[in-house]
Amino acid sequence: MRHIISILMENESGALARVANLFTARGYNIESLTVAPTEDLSLSRMTLVTSGSDEIIEQITKQLNKLVDVVKLVDLTEGGHLEREMMMIKLRAERTQREEIKRLVDIFRGKIIDVTDTSYTVELTGAASKLNAFIEAVNEELIIEVVRTGPSGIGRGPKGLSL
Amino acid sequence: MELSGGEIIVQCLKDEGVEHVFGYPGGAVLHIYDAFFKQKELKHILVRHEQAAGHAADGYARATGKPGVVLVTSGPGATNVVTGVATAFMDSIPMVVLTGQVPTPVIGSDAFQEVDTVGITRPCVKHNFLVKRLEDLADTIKKAFYIATTGRPGPVVIDIPKDITDPGIKIPYHYPNKVKMRSYNPVVKGHLGQIKKAVKILMEAERPVFYTGGGVVLDDAAKPLTDLVDTLGFPITQTLMGLGAYPGSGKNFLGMLGMHGTYEANMAMHETDVLIAVGARFDDRVTGHVKQFCPDATIIHVDIDPSSISKNVRVDVPIVGPVKQVLKDMLKVVNEGDKKPKQQALKKWWKQIDKWRAMDCMKYDKKSELIKPQQAVEMLHKVTKGDAYVTSDVGQHQMFAAQFYRFDKPRRWINSGGLGTMGFGLPAAIGVQMAHPKAEVAVVTGESSIQMCIQELATCLQYDLPIKIILLNNGYMGMVRQWQEFFYDSRYSQSGMSVTPDFVKLTESYGHIGMRVEKSEDLEGAMKEAFSHKDRLVFLDVVVDPSENVYPMIAAGKGHHEMYLSPGSELV
Ligand SMILES: Cc1ncc(C[n+]2csc(CCOP(=O)(O)OP(=O)(O)O)c2C)c(N)n1
Ligand SMILES: [Mg+2]
Fold first, then answer.
1. Is the CB of B303 within 6 Å of ligand 1?
2. Residue B338 lies in a domain
3. Number of helical H runs and strand E runs in chain B
4. Which of B155, B332, B354, B408 is 20 to 30 A (C-alpha) from B36?
5. Which of the pair, B289 or A39, is modelled with greater confidence?
């Protein structure tokens, strides 16, 4: 099953490498990984998407917790949570296709953020599954480039992941 | 007090209570070595290869429980020490390793003797640091010792760029006496509810077994373990890393378990209904095929490291906490409770175990003219009255030492169990002998392993270390040869080791005493003579039967109940 693991970790230079290393060293699957600073400059927040059996996910969270730079960790998929990912997708948009693409972008509540005579660049935000659906919906031959941030997530409700 | 970086390092080590540092100098650590030169309290042991510095510090730590400390230079100094670090990591040995690094302004420029030490060591340390500011140095050293020695212990590397130790730059010195890290909080107490639950299960057990490992030794929990086992009257088996915690001559001891464990220990594991694992990690050499591991057992697992629990084998009652405290609490719950172990069932269980014991699975030919390696280890036990510190290398000799020395005390058996590092024995013995100058320290080794760190004979001379090296010389990488005999139709590909130096002459050229013994009947005299040289290193080359194999043996991937017991035997 797919899991979204959210991690608060020390904003140290080696921290990201430690997490990445752990996944390669132990052969865990890693779908995506995003990391950025938080309001507290000494902490970074990492969102990691992985998949595996319950046993493997248990090992992954235990091993992550064991890393000295990891301050706190939560498997968001264990409770209600929100997931968002941003994608910029560049599409071939010649005269005949332009209307069709625009319609599709509207349906997905995306934005066209760059336009040339022959192309559109579309910005789209949502759960990873929604971005996948958009990619499926456009004609494959029109896709010039896809750039995705990888999902980040947050728990539902008033409580936050903090120290 | 204003100190330079080099002086801060020396002062921190003193304030931390360090007495010995194992190391080797080089460009990036010259400032530190200069600070060493100007003081007397901290003793520096100059090894002949940085790998040995790692193993020596490791041996020191295993024998004392105190962290071992290493100091090496950047680049090749750091890469040479990696084997030592990885060895300590696999066996959870507390160590602090200081490596020099090129000056901060040139890091990343492929400077002379630059290597990404933090990157290279990351997968085999508990944690590592690169010190980027002089102001962080003392704090970092404090954290390193704290991390290395608490929770599940392990090696910590501190990479120190040369400019940080510049003698021209001094700052006020203050060694923090406490550390708090929000991201590192090892568990300090096992959950009482879980402990009670475990005890309840133990009292219901009909065929219980204790399976204990290196964690018991690391946490100095031999006493509560022995008390608990004896109070309950349960059988106990120990891993290669756990030997000596419960006395090897104790009546409840079934011997070691696993690949070269005893018949009775492995059969008991296979038939048990309640397994209590303490400070052990269900390593593949212990479990054999995990699908067939303890098929009928409810499993209780006590360990300081939550990630060890249910990693390889699903556990029913996990107890995360320091082994010593948990065992003490268990004993208390047992003593204060009104329930007693099931005596009738236990009696039956012991009867079964005695039947297995009667197979005498470790028998060997005692009348052989050729010296049998088992016999050599038993002789070592006899001559040292079972009270020596025994280090070993890796191979058949290691297994024979583990099986036949019957360690009665913890921290006496010092070997590389997890990484299986040939070359460990002699340097580890240096660390042990530094820590216990008066104790008898023996290295049980093979002619192949000993050659991997033989240069340390010079270190032993320099520091007058009266180590006794017992070489079980079978002219082969015996363990490799054994596998080739069993699984490759005796095609002995590259496992012959008949070309060796004359070890007697070699030892003499290093300034020690060399001896060689070839016949069974001369063994006792030779061993006694070797140990009669109280203040000299003696290298005893024992020529043993080259065809001897280690039994019992569970082939890799087999279950505990499938063992080879003797030459030519079928699986039982
Ligand atoms: C550094 C290293 N290289 C290779 C091995 C693989 N290996 C395990 S046992 C062994 C043979 C050891 O031979 P020896 O030291 O003579 O001991 P014996 O088995 O003959 O007692 C080898 C090569 C190892 N464990 N460590
Ligand atoms: Mg050999």
1. no
2. yes
3. 20, 20
4. B155
5. A39
Are A48 and A30 in contact, with CB atoms under 8 Å apart? yes
Does B72 lie in the same domain as B220?
A: no
ipTM for the complex shown: 0.91
Does a structural domain hold residue B563?
no
Q: What is the CATH number of the domain that holds B305?
A: 3.40.50.1220
Read off the pLDDT of each residue in B526-545 and give the average, rounded to a whole number. 98
Look up tokens 């024979």; give the residue.
Answer: B400
Indicate which of B92, B180, B301, B307 best probes the interface with A, i.e. most A CBs within 10 Å of its own CB.
B307
Which of A14, A62, A68 is the closest to B184 by Cβ? A68
Q: For chain B, how many structural domains are there in total? A: 3
The string of pLDDT tens digits covering residues A50-94 is 999 999 999 999 999 999 999 999 999 999 999 999 999 999 999
Mean per-residue pLDDT, B110-134:
97
pLDDT digits (tens, 9 = 90+) for A91-144: 999 988 999 999 999 999 999 999 999 999 999 999 999 999 999 999 999 999
- Are B388 and B349 in the same domain? no
Assess if residue B514 is contained within a domain.
yes
Alpha carbon of B399 to ligand 1 centroid (Å): 12
Which residue shows structure tokens 């730590």?
A: B61
Does the C-beta of B325 come closer than 6 Å to ligand 1? no
Cα A147 to its chain centre, rounded Å, is 11
Which ligand neighbours the alpha carbon of B396 most closely? 1
Same domain, B345 and B203: yes
Give the nearest chain A residue to B117 (CA atoms).
A14
What's the confidence (pLDDT) of residue B572?
Answer: 58
Q: Peptide bond before B552: cis, by omega within 30 degrees of 0? A: yes
Spatial CB neighbours of B500, under 8 Å, sequence gap ≥ 6 = B447, B451, B473, B475
Burial of A105-127, coded b for 16+ CB within 10 Å and e otherwise, reads beebebebeeeeeebbbbebebe
Task: Give the tokens for residue B564.
Answer: 């080879």
- What's the rounded Cα separation, in Å, for the pair B275 and B206? 11
> Does A23 lie at the interface with B, CB-CB under 8 angstroms?
no
User: Cβ contacts (< 8 Å) between B311 and chain A: which residues?
Assistant: 59
To the nearest whole number, what is the mean pLDDT of chain A? 95
Q: What is the domain extent for residue B47?
A: 2-172
Active site (catalytic) residues of B: 50, 112-113, 162, 479
Question: Hey, what domains does chain A have and what are their CATH numbers?
Answer: 2-79 (3.30.70.260), 82-152 (3.30.70.1150)
- Nearest CB partner across the interface for A71, out of B147, B183, B307: B183
β-bridge partners, B256 = B238
Ramachandran area for residue B389 (φ above 0: left; ψ -120 to 50: alpha; else beta): beta
Residue B280 main-chain phi, psi, to 5 deg: -130, 160
Helices B520-532 and B373-383 cross at an angle (nearest 10°) of 40
Q: What is the CATH number of the domain that holds B65?
A: 3.40.50.970
Same structural domain, B16 and B65: yes
Q: What is the DSSP string of A112-140?
A: EEEE-SSEEEEEEEE-HHHHHHHHHHS-G
Residues B349 and B384 in one domain: no
Strands B274-278 and B389-392: unpaired
Average pLDDT value for residue range B420-436:
98
Inter-chain touch A63–B310, beta carbons under 8 Å: no
Same domain, B429 and B400: yes
On whether both B199 and B164 belong to a single domain, the answer is no
B53 has a pLDDT exceeding 70: yes
Shortest alpha-carbon distance between residue B311 and chain A (Å): 7
Q: Which helix (H) or strand (E) holds A33?
A: strand A32-37
- Both B342 and B391 in one domain: the answer is no
Helices (H) and strands (E) in chain A, counts: 4, 9
| Ligand closest to CA B377 | 1
Q: What is the distance in angstroms between the Cα of B406 and the nearest Cα belonging to chain A?
A: 35
Residue B567 lies in a domain: no
Rounded mean pLDDT, B191-208: 98
